[in-house]
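dude i think i finally got it to work??
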Amino acid sequence: MTNHSDSIDPTDPIDEPAVTLRTPAELADALPYLLGFRPENSVVLIALQGPRGRFGGRVRLGIPERAEDWPAVAEQLAQCLVSGCERRSVRPDGVVAFLCQEPGGSAGDTSGLSGRQVMERLRPLAQTLRTACGDLDIPVLEAVCVSDGRFWTYCCPDQRCCPADGTPLPPAGTSVLAAATAYAGRQVGPDQGKLRARLKPWRTAAAAAQESALHAAAVALVPRILDEGGHDEVAEETLDLARRLMARLAAAPPKPDLLDADLQDDELLAHDEAAAVILGLQDRTTRDRAAEWMEGQEARSALRLWRALARRCVGPFYEHAAAPLTLAGWVAWSLGDLIEGQEALTMALAADPHYTFALLLYPVCGADDDPEPIRRILRGERAQREPESAVAEGASTTDDASQHLGAVDHLSPAVSAAASVPTGSSRPVGPDVGFGADAGTGAGAPTEPEARTDTDIGSAPRGHRRRSRPSARTTRPSGGAGTGPRNRRPAVRRDTRSDQ
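look at this
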C-alpha cells in the first residue's frame, strides 16, 4: 500500500542519473513507463510542474466513441488534472497530452484506417484538449498521437523533424528511459488488452456448459435468496463454497505466464461450483462479506477466484459479472495494484452501469486514494461478526468511517459508507485519475516498486527537451488445500481471449 503521508523533498539528493527526453519520440516511448502499463484507446494528460517541468499527476480516460462527447470529456479531464494536483498544493505549469488508438479500435469507426488517418481523426480532440487546458491557464506544451507503431505531434508543423507519415516508435525497452526505469527496479505491467483478457467471459465450447450450469443455479438459488427463510442459508453456503475454492487455488501456485495461470485456475473450478458462487454473490450482503477477503494470502487467493468467476459470466449472465469484477477491482486495489483495480472496476460498470458498489469504488480507486479507511471498516464488521477472527488492530469506528465514507442506499451497512456517490448515479463519476505521493506518476506493475519520475523541460527548439530521473522510493505490495471439483471439465485454451 502506498503511504500517502510520505513525500519526496525536492532538495534531497537523487542517486539515479538524470534522463533527458528531448523529442516527441522519447515522450511517446516514455508513456508506458510513466503510467506503469501500455495504454490502449486512451487519452492521457500528464502535468508538468515547476520551472524545470517535472512530471506530476496524470489522468487517463478511454476515448469516447462519439466526437460530440469530446469537448465535455476534454473539459472534465483538464479540471480533474488540475484539482488533483491542487489537492497536493502543486498547480500544473503545463501539460503533455497523449492520444493512443490503434486502427480498428473501439472508439468510433476506425476499421480500415491507417495510423495517419487515425491521427487526423483525433486532431479535433487534441485541439479540444489544448483549448480546455488553456481555459484553465495551463498550456499544452506537447500533444502526441500514438497509433499503428508510429507517433505524430500535433504541436510541431516542421516536417523535417515531424513528418506527415509519422515516425516509427523505437523498439520497446531499448531507450535510455527504459534502462533507467529497469535500473530503478520498476517494470511495465501488462497492456490493457491483456488485463481485460483475464476478466472477459469465455468464448469457447466450455462457455455452453457454464451457461447451462448458471441456468440451473438460478432456478435453484434465486427463489431461496428471495425467501426470507432461505436467504441466510444461501449466503453461508456461498461463502463456505468460496472459501473451499480459494483454498484449492492457494494449493496450486500460479504459473508465471498469465494465460497459463488463468487456464490452471479455470481447470480447478467445476461449472456448478462457479455458478453457485456467481449467483450467491448477487446478494449484496453476501458480496460485502466476501469483500472482507482483502489482505495477505487470503486476498491473493480471492483475487484469483474473482477473476475466474468473471470469466464464467457467459451469455445472458454477462451482467452478473459486475459482482466478481467489482470484488476483483477492490482486492487488486487493496493489494496495491491500482492498474488492475481501475480496469476491473471499469469493466464492472460496463457490465452493469447501475452497480452501486462499483460506482462507489471507481472514483476513489481512480484517484489513487488510500484504501485503508475502507479496509478498517470491513475489518471492524468482520471482528463484530467473528470476535475470534484475527483482524488488524485499530478497526475503524462508525464515526471515524463516516468522515471518509458516505451512505449509499443500495449497499449493506458495512460498505454503504465506503465512499460518497451521487444517489441514482448510473455511470462512473470521473476518469481514471492517479496521483502518487509528491504528485508522482502513478502506480507501477503489480508487486514491483513504484518509480517516481522528475522531468525537466529545457530550452531546446520547439520545447522538445525533457529531462527525467526515475527514482524507486515507494513500493506497492502485490495482491488450505481442498479437493478437486466433482465435475471438472478441462478448460479449452482461450485463444479468443486476446483483446478484440
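Residues 228-250 form the longest helix (23 residues).
im so relieved honestly
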